Amino acid sequence: MDTQREAYRVEAYDLLAELEISLLELESAPDDMDLVDRVFRAMHTIKGSGAMFGFDAIAEFTHDVESAFDRVREGHISVTTGLVNLALAARDQIRSMLDHADDPVHIDQQQGRRILDGFRAILSAAQTAPAPDGADGPARPAWEIVATGTAGATGEKIYRIRFEPHETLFQNGTNPLALLSELTSLGHCRTIAHLDRLPAPEAFNPESCYLSWDILLTSDCSLNAIQDIFIFVEDACSLSIDLIDRLDAPAEASVSKRLGEILVARGDLPPEAVDEALERQQRLGQILVDAGRVSAEKVCSALAEQEYVQSVRAKREQQSSAGSVRVAAEKLDQLVNLVGELVTVQARLNQKAVLSRDAELLNISEVVERLTDELRDNTLSIRMLPIDVTFSKLRRLVRDLSNELGKNILLKTEGGDTELDKTVLEQLNDPLVHILRNSIDHGIETPERRGKAGKPEQGTIRLKAEHSGANVLIHISDDGAGIEPAVIRRKAIEKGLLSADAERSDKELLQLIFLPGFSTAEAVTNVSGRGVGMDVVKRSIESLRGAIELNSQPGKGTTITLKLPLTLAIIDGLLVEIDSDKFVLPLSSIEECVELSREDLKKTHGRNILNIRNQIVPFVPLRERFAIAGDAPNFEQVVINEVNGRRVGIVVDRVIGEHQIVIKTMNALYKNVPEVSGATILGDGTVALILDVQKLLSGIQEENLEAESER
Amino acid sequence: MKILIAEDDNISRQIIHKILVRFGRCDAVVDGAEAVEAFKLALEDGEPYDLICLDIMMPGVDGQAALKQIREIERQMETRGEREVKVIMLTALDDAHSVVEAYYRGGATAYLVKPIESNKLLLELQRLGLITAEQSKSMRGQK
Amino acid sequence: MSVVNEIIDGCNRVRIVGALSIWEAAATWSDLNSLLSAPGPVEIDLTAVESCDGAGVQILCQLHKLLAQRPEQGHVTGISNGLSQAMRLAGLNADGLPAGQGEA
Fold first, then answer.
1. d(CA A527, CA A537)
2. Which of A71, A365, A662, C100 could form a disulfide with A77 if both were Cys (CB 3.0 to 4.6 A apart)?
3. What is the pLDDT of residue A249?
4. What is the CATH number of domain A3-141?
5. What percent of chain A has pLDDT over 90?
């Protein structure tokens, strides 16, 4: 596929994502003509540009969809849930056509025809009855966004201050430069001096003030703050302060003023003069100067204002993210890899420099270290994406599912601008979908049941993301039925996951949900009863080196909290050693290290169980597990990890210490070695394998775990 | 029909002018700012344009920005749907991003890639319902 | 403030020293006028101007006008940091013209 088509597809996917959001918004605000326009434009764009880049089938398909929204624009069709459903289906169809542009056999042509028939029906109905009132009623709100404090503009504005001192200004001891200087303390100033009142040198009185100024001030201050500066010179000057542009208004909403308008607004020129000049369709400024209607200096000043407003706005737009460059994900991954290697080499350089005791080399090494750190942080930050991308996909899920199950659910999202590593974000989607499905299916009750329980008929699911140190927390909470610990207990005993006489606190009982093969749904629905349980969610979150926590209040609702690392490329690890082989254990799951002597070992009678503070902890001797030749030292070390809520030890020869590890993925040859999740290159150039503790321990004999669970 | 051509390149402007002039009054401007100005004046005079041909790469305010401003003015005046002026982007830029930008963010009616051929432009005018099939055909016959 | 001058190789070298403000404006202006009214090339050194206010800025604008009017050569050889800051604050360039407006 040529690059042009590929570039088109990238644009089209973006467009479809925006279309989906617009459609969902439209459903909750069916009268918003701006949204209708946006949907129409998206369809029109897909049609028009699709044809240009050889996606004729897509262009053709979109034609009727576009016509329907054109009729909506004209007010002949009103927005109903039915129309939105159909449009969303059309969106999905276009997406599938894009996905399979090169192998069209995979496209469901029948579905396409069904959608088009639906639109044609709406179109012909509209022709017979000019403005039908939608049999399926007006669309209802399905979600809303809770604004966060961090997002958005600061309310900056551009003021034009025209400051014309009277000739007597100096006589009361006022220095106009001091006033100008005070203005600069409010914000950025563009000062334009006017010298036109300055007389010929012969007639010049050095003690009179002839200068005057136009100042364009970009600031979030109020008009009063500016007036305060001039408060003592009010009688000695003529002053006008005008707000000429609000930067916090959306860029499109404020059209920058034309030269003629500026001159008129500034009172330099009567409006008729502008009209007269414009009729001749030349450069306005030149015409007006030629005609002697206004001095060249005034035009210059007005032009400067025009330019200033545009430049401030352009800068503003650049900052507000629109000005970005698209880079292929692989290139980024490559960059991260290179930076990882650089970090490693830098560590070697540093080691060498320290050994050499060469002051100059040490100096260079330190500079390189600083630069490398900065480069690493910058590179990693490029991969960060706002979680909103994921959230907006979930909106559609909530809407479709709640329709399907006859539930009325509002999705509230918060903290959508929280950023996470791209890889984390990608792998987060499935677990989130699963959690939401559970909430919608099992959590939120039907409207009738909610009514009986004295709750509002509309259930609410909240998605909230926030930073917490080097982690991001994602809370998914619903105000549904909650989870009854007693029910969990009964089910767990039924499924043989818990012995009938085992004593567990409510909190512990809730954690049983994460065990494989646990499902609490009374009836298996096709929504979440697909045999994939919360155990899978837990495992995928843990594979991201994250953690999951569940809290529930029966009758009130359930909250699931995911704790995720900001990035996957660098982890904190514990470096350990067996003989001369080095391994890294992720620090996140490590609880403590204890010593294991020969005597201790003998006492276990080969059962590999350790008694730590009266708690039985099973352990894995790594030397044995990896069949490393040679004898263990007299005193070995046991690294205690918390895995699946249990404490398990890993026995190694020596613990070297904590290290920041840059992860290098292993190539495909190692894919059959699940215990190793990656490798890293140490400062001295040797390689250490990063162990996946969870996989490593999955081989532990069940009886050991049983023994531990019975305590 | 009242037509506005915004194009900074003299030769292109003349070519477009030559094709379009037989369908009505053609005004020409050389940058985006002037295009917006002319559009506004025509609107205020109650004789709005039926068609605007906008080049994208122009000095100062470019075609994309001019298009957005024109649509914004229309939005403020509650001019929507059929009553919006038809805007054909006539440009040498044929990358997907520019195209989507013009259509989606700008609200362009059509997008034609230079070099401008008379037939291409005529067909587009016909598709937009600005000229009849007969007009288009008779024009396409002659060179 | 003082305006000092010496004539070297037929060139009148004028030097303004100290503050250039409303208090010295009248005196400075008359000194400058009389020095510049004498025929012959002139060089003006502004590196020793310590501070400058609105009146001072105005004098500099007029000084540039005067220099331009003279039949003989006349130019400013140097300008102090404080002075150039004051000019910038007033929206003027070093030649006493509105800054950033080379063309119409």
1. 15
2. A71
3. 53
4. 1.20.120.160
5. 5
